[in-house]
Amino acid sequence: MAVCPTPLIEEKERPFVDRKEFIKAFEKTFQNLGEKDYSVLVYYGVGGIGKTSLRKELPKLLEEYNESYQNTGVIWASVDFSIESHRQSDKFLGILKNQLQEKNGVNFHLFDIANAAYWRKVNPQIPLSKDGYSEDSIVTDLFDTFGGFVSINYSNIKRVVERTPGRFRDWSLRRKEELARLPEMEAPDIEKKLPVFFAQDLADHLQRTSKSAVFFIDSYEALWEKERGQGSFNSRDEWIRQLIANLPESSLWVICGREGLRWEEADQDWNNYLEQHHLGILPDKDAFNFLNLCGIEEEDIQKVILEGSEGVPYYLELAVDTYNEIAKTRSPKPDDFSRTRSEIFDRFMKYLRGPEQETLKVLSTPRFWNKDIFRVLIDNFKTGYPLTAYSELRRFSFVQETEGKLQLHPLMRKSLQEHQDQELKKEGHIFMCDYYSDKIKDLDIKSITSEHENALTEAFYHAKEALEAEELFNWFISVSDPFYRAAFWKFISPMYEEMKQILEVNLGPEHTDVATMLNNLALLYDSMGEYEKTLPLYKRALEIYEKVLGPEHPLVATTLNNLAALYRSMGEYEKALPLYNRALDTREKVLGPEHPSVANTLNNLALLYENMGEHEKALPLYNRALEIVESKLGPAHPYFKITEQNIQALKEKMKEK
After folding, report:
1. What is the pLDDT of residues 487-518, one digit of tens each?
2. Which of 263, 270, 286, 354 fits a disulfide with 18 by CB distance 3.0 to 4.6 angstroms?
3. How many domains does the chain have?
4. CATH code of 21's domain
């Protein structure tokens, strides 16, 4: 049985050295808040250069400020884009909201109501849940008063306000116009305005308390991880600019990433508000100071470490880790350390025990881990590392904690994966894919939580690493279906887009699986009301199906039907009519005149004629559809009742004429 060594010194935070000019830039910008409409401070540089360490250091200055200026003070929150789910605007805003609520008591009533209104519009059959809303939120009161199927309208909001005037009266008077307009908005419009609603709530708090706000974003480059080269570069973070533009002058944004921002390409006015700083290597004197503070005082060893690390903080810290590991058994010597960056990792691994080496390799598979993931990985891959030594790994500089989970520095994770056996690496991804897939197995669409969203996100990541394209496609369609049916469209749309790209690259742009994915993606955007994205997807899917399967295939008919329905939703009835007729002809020819799919197209065609005001043409189509449904599915089938209701409604219209 392996014994995990105990560190010679207690685990403690590594010293922060240098970066004085960057700290001064932050202090100056913070002191001058209010002089500009917007304040955005950017720190950029290569991986491992110390951006995250700087970002973690800056809130300490805000803590000191609050101790000195308690009457005004500052609130702050941070988000790390290295976690994939954080890159979606609604999740990002939710994280900021939760942090500001928990630490500072900021209420986001308008934002909460907008979220609830959006949910009820896209999920009319699923009750609203109180998850994600604080006890002080007006949505919690709406839920307690009217239940999960509450209608988010001005009348119900006003009723709650009148019941508790001390809590909501001033706020409701200030936001009366928005509250009256919001319930009438379409779901896509509400979603696009969420950053504005968030900003208005925060502005109310800052004005009432005379406080300032600082927001930190780390790993900003991750926003483009899957979408670089697609469309406009600056469209990916447009929602962040919208949020900043709606916040008061007393707000500061600190953005850390590998590249400088290019917002002036979207609007030259951003040049007036962006202050960008490039982080380079540590100067020699500060690197020596860092090593001394870490307990490495031998000058000959310091010189070798400095030469090998070339002043990059990540490699300096890894050399310190190496020094500490060697010092457990003997005195380190200059020859123990590499004179090149490429060998620093190899030297570090050389002085680890076997179980630690294998455990780190296994832990490089998940993007982050907690105690449960740690336990199942160690149990499954038999690395020999003690399960009780979970916290021991935190002694390494490259093990970072984010939101209660541990993750490896990206450079360390990359090095470990490069040194891992490829078959074992694939096994690890399959294991993690199964681990997360089990968490969303037999999922009730009425009970989906953020944990389920995270499970799908991580399962998809591991599945991409382990499965071939066609197997991945079939797996993805199955596991994502509950999220589609629960109307988590915005959440799954980036995965649909990525799945489309994977199929195009691996199977070719004219494969039928690509067409199916295009069709599914079009249905997704159609549900979201984003018709300008939907139309080209349906057209391309139709083109592929016709070319590969022929013009009279059932999948061609289905796509014609979907495309016609889109044109009908867009009000372009003259374009929809020939598509419905062609879909009907194809389904009758291929499936037979009494097939339920024929009834579906008859019903759609009748609805189109009804929209066009041609009721006499619509009625016989509805009647024929009803006969087919009754014959093939029976009068107890839900579709029979829907068709009956359509006929009744049409007859009422015809009476009125």
Report:
1. 899 899 999 999 999 999 999 999 999 999 99
2. 286
3. 5
4. 3.40.50.300
